[in-house]
Amino acid sequence: MEKQLHLNLLASRPPMAGGFQSSSKMKMGPGRKRDFSPLPWSQYFETMEDVEVENENGKDIFRIYCSGSHGPVLLLLHGGGHSALSWAVFTAVIYNRINCRVVAMDLRAHGDTKVKNPEDLSADTMAKDIGKVVEALYGENPPPIMIIGHSMGGAIAVHTATANHVPSLLGLCVIDVVEGTAMDALNSMQNFLRSRPKTFKSLENAIEWSVKSGQIRNIESARVSMGGQVKKCEESTSGSGVSNSIGEGIIEEEEDEEAEEESNKKRMKEDEQEIKKESIFTWRVELSKTEKYWEGWFRGLSALFLTSPVPKLLLLAGVDRLDKDLTIGQMQGKFQMQVLPQCGHAVHEDAPDKVADALATFMVRHKFTEFKEGYLC
Asked: Best-predicted range by mean pLDDT among 147-161, 317-331, 332-346?
């Protein structure tokens, strides 16, 4: 079970053993207060825009974040429940290393994308979305494009590549998703999703939970990306929902508990009375409702990945994730692989520098681009 939870492929790594108890505090030691305030997308991307694409029922609108004006395009696809903002810190890093353009998009039913049929998260539909967005951006003559996908986004990247939805495809990079371990992990996904807090008292609380639970190990990335994972509740949360929330009084820095105990008790009572009136945040995507699509994302993924004719890079958080087909393929030199240890499942968020280094080296080696002048690799 621990291995399955560790390898879950829809959302980020689940909470550490013990999780969060509503009556406990996490102590960090005196004088180590950390900043969990959100950071703006504009600190990492140059532009943000909404791209309209036609479908049978009208128009779908996909939110994208971009940087750069020349060089090959890095098309970034996030994992389940995440958004394009999960690539923010990585984008700032890779853009300083190589000549490139970056396009990070919110996938169907994620982030700020608005589609007519948000319930359809099939691999086929999502792969077609990628092709439509590329066509809307670049017309019939798109520039060379390297697709980079994490987890669910990595699976969709493979489906997009093998279906030839991006005719100018240059290469493929898949981050921490392997068919064998993904299929195993699906058995424990619902348990993991149920273990997460259903609501948060504030965006800062959501950021704090993501860092202290181990979901995102890089606090800077959490501060910019969690805003794409949670949203304000449209209606007041019922009393039963509040009991599952993470409030500001739950996770605190160490303080003089004896002196503060009485005032804390009073404040917590006031919080309970006022919480219905305040802004409650909840998850943007109800991942548990997407279960019928999980198998379609991952089954047959290794074979599809191996048959894609473009140069391929597989980045993993642990070598134990490699299944039989990929082990054989790697021995035959069908793709390049790199293991980035000491990362959680959200590898590109936990270690954006290492992922950027691996990708930059891969692209320069294949002569897709060059290192930027003055950058010492």
From this structure: 147-161
Which of 289-315 are b and which e, b meaning 16 or more Cβ less than 10 Å from the residue's Cβ?
ebeebbeebbbebbebbbebeebbbbb
Cβ contact 128:98 at 8 Å:
no
**CB of 287 closer than 8 Å to CB of 11:** yes
Question: What torsion, rounded to 10 degrees, do the Cα atoms 174, 172, 72, 134 define?
Answer: -90
DSSP letter for 142, please.
Answer: P
Residue 57: count of CB within 10 angstroms of its CB:
9
Q: How far apart are CA 254 and CA 265, in angstroms?
A: 16
Residue 325 contacts residue 181 (beta carbons within 8 Å): no
Measured CA to CA in angstroms, residue 274 lies from 176, 240, 267, 268 at distances of 42, 15, 10, 10
CA atoms within 13 A on the CB side of 363: 32
* Contact yes or no for 36/208 (Cβ under 8 A): yes
Catalytic residues: 151, 176, 345
- DSSP lists the bridge partners of residue 149 as 77, 174
pLDDT beyond 50 at 24: no
Report residue 239's pLDDT band, with 50, 70 and 90 as the boundaries. Answer: very low
pTM across the whole model: 0.83
Check: CB of residue 102 under 8 Å from CB of residue 95: yes
**Across 18-32, 153-167, 186-200, 267-281, which has the greatest mean pLDDT?**
153-167
Q: Band the pLDDT of 32: cuts 50, 70, 90.
A: low
Q: What is the distance between the alpha carbons of residues 327 and 321, in angstroms, rounded to a whole number?
A: 10
